[in-house]
């Protein structure tokens, strides 16, 4: 089995997959914490239209994917948090984008394989240039995420206190979604638009059940993601038939399910955020939830 | 062009499209009202897995879809009382279903080039290849759905708008949830058959959501929902058959029309709201207008 590593495509796939797994863990943590799972589903589907358009025009699919994914992410960020209305608008736009992508590709002969490639992902098409682009883009994404880590965490845990402290909550929200769009675009090369979600949300959601500390959650999520990706790539390469994206999604689900059913993160002595209705206490007495969660 | 319209292909497409549009408009009205679009999404992915599995195993995709989606609906319905804020769980289950669909479809498409092209119809619809027997099955399912919906629509509406009061009155909310999920599964299966798993949600959600933006009164909204649904389905089929461009795929036409109808209703509603707010004498006027 180790002789698989002799193949260039295997090495490229493993490197890209590892980069993407780590990035997805960091971004995915915030996706779960900020209840953006629907966005994690919609953004890659809209990206599909961009990738399809790129194929039609003759440029790298990942650029088209990112352009559309970024537009979708910024749009979702601007729409804010009126959940119900937003869900319908996003669902309608998402299906329109999927239809548009299908239209673009149907104009292209031999389109079925292209559609499958973008939707299901593949470990075969990853060139050295892809690896380089993925590495550089992921590094930029991680650096930016690290730069906004503390304020973003604060906004996630207690948006009102954050706004009161003067943090640009809305702008951070949009910025984070833009970073997520980049992570999703990089991940979609291998995982495909349909299953990017599992690598993004699965490990983070699982880790979230095991610990409350953000840094440790991200670490566990990264380790889980790396495991899934390596096992997935190995299985895909050995069988020649099993899609990597399926393997990763199956592993993510199979690990998530028991953890979700049985693990309970250690809770503080208080039972979650308490509503302070006592008007005589000033805001400073009770620790805010942000102060309760250790930042690392 | 006219002989294209007179063809069996067109007639089958219109028949299947009409049945799917009416059923999904009626069921979709409740989906939007109950804010269960995400559950609908989950069911489209479950249908995808079912149809791909059936194709791989050599069964009729519609039967595979119904088998999987009814099972999935049972699970979703039993959990639905605690489904608020369960997006992560639903999302993970949805991804597992999609993953299975990806596996089945990959194995199926791997088999031959014709299979690969046929696989497109699972993702984006096969309304043109719907056979008369399938139309018969769809009609049967539609009649069943409409009967069940007719029976439960009032208590369902009550339970949707005021679940606490409904439970206090002794309404079997769990039974209602599960029954609704089951007929949603059937409606979704029909949408997936006509415009594919990836696009099905638009036929289910866009026409009713547009109708609800025009009027919130149940009878009017439901009627408008059916009207919009038929307009979108027929318009989409016509546009694809006689379209000035290179005959865009029907799935694309229908989902685009759905988006156009919904966004138009959205814009019109925002305009009307802002105009009436500017011109009203006192804040209660809008409420009084609604009540008329």
Describe this structure in words.
- The complex is a heterodimer of chains A (296) and B (292).
- With 296 residues, chain A is mainly α.
- Chain A has one domain: Orthogonal Bundle (ABC transporter involved in vitamin B12 uptake, BtuC), CATH 1.10.3470.
- Chain A has 12 helices and no strands.
- In chain A, helix 9 crosses helix 11.
- Chain A is globular.
- The two termini of chain A are 39 Å apart.
- Chain B contains 13 helices and no strands.
- In chain B, helix 3 runs antiparallel to helix 4, helix 4 runs antiparallel to helix 9 and helix 9 packs across helix 10.
- The C terminus of chain B is likely disordered.
- Chain B has 292 residues and is mainly α.
- Chain B has a single domain, classed as Orthogonal Bundle (ABC transporter involved in vitamin B12 uptake, BtuC).
Lay out the secondary structure.
The complex is a heterodimer of chains A (296) and B (292).
Chain A: H1 8-33, H2 37-57, H3 61-79, H4 83-106, H5 111-120, H6 128-147, H7 149-157, H8 159-164, H9 169-208, H10 214-239, H11 244-262, H12 289-292
Helix pairs in contact in A: 1-6, 1-9, 1-10, 2-3, 2-4, 2-5, 2-9, 3-9, 5-9, 6-9, 9-10, 9-11, 10-11
Chain B: H1 2-5, H2 8-33, H3 37-57, H4 61-79, H5 87-111, H6 113-124, H7 132-161, H8 163-168, H9 173-195, H10 200-214, H11 218-242, H12 250-279, H13 284-291
Helix pairs in contact in B: 2-7, 2-9, 2-10, 2-11, 3-4, 3-5, 3-9, 3-10, 4-9, 5-6, 6-9, 7-9, 9-10, 10-11, 10-12, 11-12
């Amino acid at each position: 089995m180790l002789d698989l590593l002799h193949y260039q495509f295997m090495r490229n796939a493993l490197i890209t997959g590892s980069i993407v797994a780590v990035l997805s863990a960091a971004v995915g943590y915030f996706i779960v914490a900020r209840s953006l799972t629907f966005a994690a589903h919609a953004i890659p589907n809209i990206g599909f239209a961009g990738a399809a358009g790129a194929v039609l025009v003759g440029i790298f699919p990942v650029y088209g994917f990112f352009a559309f994914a970024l537009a979708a992410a910024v749009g979702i960020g601007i729409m804010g948090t009126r959940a119900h209305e937003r869900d319908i608008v996003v669902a309608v736009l998402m299906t329109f984008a999927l239809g548009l992508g299908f239209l673009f590709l149907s104009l292209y002969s031999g389109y079925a394989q292209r559609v499958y490639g973008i939707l299901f992902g593949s470990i075969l098409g990853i060139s050295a240039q892809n690896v380089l682009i993925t590495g550089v883009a992921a590094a930029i994404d991680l650096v930016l995420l690290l730069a906004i880590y503390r304020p973003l965490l604060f906004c996630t845990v207690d948006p009102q206190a954050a706004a009161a402290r003067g943090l640009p909550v809305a702008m951070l929200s949009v910025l984070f979604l833009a970073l997520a769009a980049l992570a999703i675009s990089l991940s979609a090369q291998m995982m495909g638009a349909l299953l990017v979600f599992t690598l993004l949300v699965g490990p983070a959601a699982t880790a979230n059940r095991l610990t409350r500390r953000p840094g440790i959650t991200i670490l566990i999520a990264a380790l889980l993601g790396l495991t899934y990706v390596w096992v997935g790539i190995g299985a895909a390469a050995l069988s020649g038939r099993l899609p990597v994206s399926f393997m990763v999604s199956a592993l993510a689900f199979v690990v998530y399910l028991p953890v979700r059913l049985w693990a309970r993160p250690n809770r503080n002595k208080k039972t979650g955020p308490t509503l302070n209705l006592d008007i005589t206490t000033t805001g400073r007495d009770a620790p805010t939830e942000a102060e309760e969660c250790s930042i690392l | 062009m006219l002989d294209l319209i007179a063809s069996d292909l067109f007639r089958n497409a219109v028949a299947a499209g009409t049945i799917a549009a009416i059923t999904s408009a009626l069921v979709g009205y409740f989906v939007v009202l109950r804010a269960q679009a995400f559950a609908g999404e989950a069911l489209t992915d479950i249908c995808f897995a079912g149809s791909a599995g059936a194709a791989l195993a050599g069964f009729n995709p519609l039967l595979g879809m119904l088998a999987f989606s009814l099972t999935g609906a049972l699970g979703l319905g039993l959990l639905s009382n605690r489904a608020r804020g369960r997006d992560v769980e639903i999302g993970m289950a949805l991804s597992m279903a999609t993953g299975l669909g990806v596996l089945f479809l990959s194995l199926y498409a791997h088999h031959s080039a014709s299979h690969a092209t046929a696989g497109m119809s699972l993702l984006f619809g096969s309304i043109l290849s719907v056979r008369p027997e399938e139309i018969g099955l769809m009609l049967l399912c539609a009649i069943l759905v409409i009967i069940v919906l007719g029976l439960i629509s009032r208590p369902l509406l009550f339970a949707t708008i005021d679940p606490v009061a409904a439970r206090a009155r002794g309404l079997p909310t769990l039974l209602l949830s599960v029954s609704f999920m089951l007929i949603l599964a059937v409606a979704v299966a029909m949408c997936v058959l006509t415009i594919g798993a990836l696009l099905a949600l638009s036929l289910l959600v866009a026409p009713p959501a547009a109708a609800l933006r025009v009027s919130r009164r149940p009878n009017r909204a439901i009627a408008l929902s059916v009207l919009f649904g038929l307009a979108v389905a027929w318009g989409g089929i016509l546009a694809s058959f006689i379209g000035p461009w290179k005959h865009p795929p029907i799935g694309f036409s229908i989902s685009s029309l759905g988006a156009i109808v919904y966004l138009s209703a959205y814009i019109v509603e925002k305009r009307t709201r802002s105009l009436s707010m500017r011109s009203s004498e006192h804040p209660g006027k809008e409420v009084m207008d609604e009540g008329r």
